[in-house]
Design goal:
mainly beta; binds zinc ion; five-stranded antiparallel β-sheet; 5 strands
């Protein structure tokens, strides 16, 4: 019922570690990947991809959340 004990690797059952990495794209765009990674086998589970780009009116943030089924970008 707690749900807060972490994500487990579906290969070996180890608790996966939350990781993120950012990648600079051309111009002012930055892309950030959020994912869990298994420290034992290196298996990776994507959580979210966020892209930030600068426009004339400020920043545009595009989020793509991986929930298994839903793969729609969410604009904020
Ligand atoms: Zn694993």
């Amino acid at each position: 019922m707690s749900g807060g004990e972490g994500v487990k690797c579906n290969k070996d059952g180890n608790v996966m570690v939350f990781t993120y990495e950012s990648e600079k794209l051309k111009g002012d765009q930055v892309r950030v990947f959020l994912y869990y990674k298994c420290p034992v086998c290196g298996s990776r589970r994507d959580i979210e991809e966020t892209r930030v780009e600068r426009s004339d009116r400020g920043f545009i943030v595009t989020r793509r959340v991986y929930t298994g089924i839903l793969r729609e970008p969410v604009s904020t």
